[in-house]
Amino acid sequence: MNMKQYFQAASLQEAYLKMIESSGNSIIGGGVWMKLSTKKLDAAIGLELLALDTIEETTDSYEIGSMVTLRQIETHPDLKKLSSGILSKAAGKIMGVPFRNLATIGGSIMGKFAFSDLLAPLLVMDVALVFYKAGTMPLSEFLDQRKMNPDVLIKIIVPKTESHGYFHKVSTTALDFATLNLAIASGSDGIKMAIGARPSIAVRAWKAENFINRQLKPTDADIEQAIMIACEELKFGSNNKASADYRKTLAKAYLKRGLKEVMYGED
Amino acid sequence: MKINFVLNGLPKTWVIAPGEMFLDTLRNHHITSVKRGCDSTSCGVCTILLDGKPVPSCALLSIRVDGHVITTVEGIASEVEKIANHFGEEGADQCGFCNPSMALTVYALKMENKHATDEEIKAYLMGNLCRCTGYIAQHKAIHKYLGDES
Prior knowledge:
The complex is a heterodimer.
Chain A: E1 2-8, H1 12-21, E2 25-28, E3 40-46, E4 55-57, E5 61-65, H2 70-75, H3 86-91, H4 97-100, H5 105-110, H6 119-124, E6 128-131, E7 135-138, H7 139-144, E8 153-159, E9 163-170, E10 180-187, E11 190-196, E12 203-204, H8 206-214, H9 220-233, H10 244-264
Parallel strand pairs in A: 1-3, 2-3
Antiparallel strand pairs in A: 4-5, 5-8, 6-7, 6-8, 9-10, 10-11, 11-12
Chain B: E1 2-7, E2 10-15, H1 22-28, E3 47-50, E4 53-56, E5 69-71, H2 77-89, H3 99-112, H4 118-124, H5 136-146
Parallel strand pairs in B: 1-5
Antiparallel strand pairs in B: 1-2, 3-4, 3-5
């Protein structure tokens, strides 16, 4: 990535005004994937002076600043417990510690990376994004949008919903991108499932969730049915890592394990 | 543009270009203990400490070093001597290309988690590749260094 200028914003407003100034301007999160891009920027905008690198606790949520690193999420004592710690677990499986000390959650979300291991757990934890201009928006809505007006992501709100969580990443080696990743959460508001790196971006399996949440006492047959619905509603694709069929087979196996784990505590 | 920062205890003011990565900046200033391996944020040989935390300098924008404290292997000389001795005793050294980054990462691990288990050491060193002598000897050496109170 080339840039003509690096603009260190002194306020959120300054960052926003710079963003809307030109389509060639962009905010840089941790900057860890910058070198892999051939994009040319007029101005790279930095948010490092805006104190967006803290995780704050409120009565009903955790507010993660957009410049919080993956390592901070991985090691945060409360996030390590929330929903069985799926967010910390997912963050901790991305590359090595030095990488995670730079990479930010804001960059991971705004990049809409299809390989992201964070999006699936964030989706089932029902997080909301807070933008400077657009205000608060559920993550799923943000991911569904084709295009968004230029904006500045300020923080991510993670509700303190009690739930059992499951996260699994399938990858060839520890440092490789995921062949498939999935997250499940089971709380008082029902079961939620999301699958990413299919190889397209993580999405919720809404139909499968609706089905399983309608069952008063889900049986093994209901779980099988929910998995079938999920595999029908979600699109699996092929690339140099794996075929669509292989991904679907993985999804079936890990959805089953995950659902049993969150529902009956079975591994 | 200029950056002001502390390198191994000494204040520095360096001129950088927008978009310059700190690995390039360091090597342009002849700090060649910081190596370039993959240049795609995977191998870890360019690791430095930013405010005491290991980061890949190939992915760190130089402008973001402004106002911070940077440590390279030259800045922790006495610790490096201990690490080198333990590595030597266990026969965990070979070509030496990854040693500066390994020393910095192992030092950071000791600062963060002195009683790290094998699994924790493994997880912490996941991003540092190029261990041409294998892993067993290095794990033994790292355990000895973590327990080294000298």
